[in-house]
User: Which sequence fits this backbone?
């Protein structure tokens, strides 16, 4: 059961602030541009940032998110999430087990888990997760994923059978985020499509609008 001060995961685009995409741009600046576009949830992913820099960046990004009224999650790093005061974490296939993340974070933080199917979503719920990231929905070049592409129809089946809110992951951008929303997703993770845009804030605004349009047209899409 959610406690009063445990933030709900906002519905819509789930923006990643990633140190591997446009590495010349500071993480805090990436986050600022995402938030300027109206981002409601940001996952900070730092695979190549040294620990001291990562902690400083996490604190800065978390503070900016909270000032903007957005939820900030840390990818994998439960330690940084605790030290920076983040709203929670997202753990993947090779990260800390969700049970351990929940044990360390306690009941008042958000825990998200990457899964590949509805069975994984059910296991994640038992482990104490609040939501699951499911994919890859489409092919992606941002991250090597050892799992087959689901496609929109396969993704919709997982959404239908999942006991937790589902965030679509893998290859999501402006061209297809509406399809992910129409398939019943609670959110859609976007990395390169936002961060590589000439105007990041404007791209986020368009992603938000496209997701909302997909939700409004959801009756036109049904899982087989």
Assistant:
């Amino acid at each position: 059961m959610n406690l009063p001060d445990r933030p709900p995961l906002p519905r819509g685009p789930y923006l990643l602030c990633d140190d591997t995409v446009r590495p010349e741009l500071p993480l805090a600046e990436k986050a600022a541009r995402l938030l300027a576009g109206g981002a409601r949830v940001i996952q900070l992913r730092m695979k190549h940032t040294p620990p001291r820099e990562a902690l400083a960046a996490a604190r800065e990004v978390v503070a900016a998110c909270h000032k903007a009224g957005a939820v900030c999650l840390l990818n994998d790093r439960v330690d940084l999430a605790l030290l920076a005061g983040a709203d929670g974490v997202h753990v993947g296939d090779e990260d800390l087990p969700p049970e351990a993340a929940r044990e360390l974070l306690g009941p008042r933080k958000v825990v998200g888990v990457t899964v590949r199917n509805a069975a994984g979503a059910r296991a994640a719920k038992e482990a104490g997760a609040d939501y699951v990231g499911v994919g890859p929905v489409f092919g992606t070049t941002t991250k090597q994923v050892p799992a087959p592409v689901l496609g929109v129809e396969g993704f919709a089946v997982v959404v239908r059978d999942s006991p937790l809110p589902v965030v679509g992951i893998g290859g999501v951008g402006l061209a297809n985020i509406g399809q992910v929303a129409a398939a019943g997703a609670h959110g859609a993770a976007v990395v390169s499509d936002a961060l590589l845009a000439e105007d990041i804030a404007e791209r986020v605004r368009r992603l938000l609008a496209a997701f909302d349009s997909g939700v409004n047209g959801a009756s036109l899409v049904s899982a087989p």
